[in-house]
């Protein structure tokens, strides 16, 4: 997209005769002028965005309005156009809305828990002490393990006769079922939190590293106690990284396919029929490629709206504010 | 045939249990093929059904890809519905050595009818029931069950402290629908009946009630089995903790021969009389197993069709099939090679099961029916954990599955 915009801008610039009186837009401007910006440097990025994002997106949009399934796959270019039928079916006849609700609610809960955990872990490992390197390494273990491994290990532990239930039985608690039924929703959240908090930790740690040494000194001289110092001096530095972690974390949770797939299998129990599993089953077990594309588009729209509001609210997308604390 | 300078690409599924053996077999087969035709054989593999589907999709859409595909039998209808594979006329069958060289039952899922076939049977994996000879004897059972009621009854008899009558994989992603389909067809309900799906038929409800009843009412299954896949059920049986392990195949021989029950187990046909009955009703089918195994299909975009059929002829000939059985334990589809195995009492029931296998309905909607049947079992697991399945909730799930499967069948072309 940027390449197109870049191209247009160039053309606009060229279409103005050189002798035209120019309105000084910005007096403070320095360095490379807007006119001479080497916009062609955006071309590689623009090309990648086109190939990696735009083309698949357009294909998905096209697929969502045609009747593409196993019967029509071979002649997909002449597959009948059915307009919004896939969308109507996705919303009225499938579990799509329920799956979106499960996915979004699970993702938000997981993020709300992982953010304070990650920040706390970063604060704990901020000041040097004996063994800090070991603690930092241990904190990264869940993040380094592939999702597949994490899910397999937890699935084994949470079996009806697995180690978790054996321990609970030993303590006189009847644990019930973890991997199916209403509890499975909380199992999913728990395992996701276990696997995902180090991501917030890493971002928060990066934020803490950017706090100038003088700020710590000034706070100490002013006699600020630890909580006040943390709340009023340190946390403002973390606003950017943590807002970003909140955003990326939530999106990662929503998009996580491997974890629920390996933990619960497909077809998934109704309580953990998350969006990626629903789209997978529709695509690869029912072979309704058009319908699953429509599902993806609906969920993209539903998730993009709050995302946009969030982006405006925390101003992550406004570059001028990026550096402000 | 002179294939020198040409390359034939073949897509097979990987065998996680036998990685080295498979590699060796690939190399040897490629060398044999080179000697035979002068052409190079290139193997490609897929690890999961998902990758298989992705490969087929890409190839179907782009019109390029492997020349020959090895497909699971139940996937053949879906492949057929894409229309991307060569339909086998007399000429094609002759090129692979004639239809007569295959065990007739194994052709049952090659196509919707005898004139529209795409699949050439490569191996059979018929389902049988394994039983622990000592546990049966100790419970005073003389012969393995032949009806599902008898099966349940034996299960109860063999259940006592530290041991259960039955090893059932309730959490498996495939086993449940095989039980339900088997019991239903034995009662005369093929589930897809022309243009109608019959999941809401009383025979299906009876099948689920029997299947769930083994754990909830009879208590002849380990309560932990609600979390088991087929491998865990096999492990429980191999540890000598269960009398019957239905829904297995001779592929379990290597595992069982390394276990404590080596020499103390045998295979038998799965029961052939539906639950609640003492003999099959009229219209009931003597179905010992779903028709299971691998089919070979040739892509119709392939420029090397003659080479493809020469390759298929080579690996379905008697000697090659006997070798393949020796390495991987998969039952030959070649008549002669299968006959030679009948002298082995351990494998004989599997051969019997192969000849009494019945194909699941040849419909592009079968995938959805299978999914719907499995989904009922998945959503019922919390009830199994609680110890009882109410008829109301089961009927509700059946109704829901019926609607989804019927919608899929209505779309079928």
TrEMBL record, chain A:
One of its GO terms (cellular component) is plasma membrane. The chain crosses the membrane at residues 39-63, 100-124, 133-154, 185-208, 261-282, 289-311. Gene3D superfamilies: MetI-like. It is a multi-pass membrane protein. InterPro entries: ABC_transporter_permease (IPR051393), MetI-like (IPR000515), MetI-like_sf (IPR035906). Residues 100-310 form the ABC transmembrane type-1 domain. It is found in: Cell membrane. One of its GO terms (biological process) is transmembrane transport. The keyword Transmembrane helix applies. It comes from the Bacteria. Residues 1-30 are annotated as: Disordered. Its main location: membrane. The keyword Oxidoreductase does not apply. Pfam families: BPD_transp_1. Keywords: Cell membrane, Membrane, Transmembrane, Transmembrane helix, Transport. Belongs to the binding-protein-dependent transport system permease family. This is Sugar ABC transporter permease. The lineage of its organism: Bacteria, Bacillati, Actinomycetota, Actinomycetes, Micrococcales.
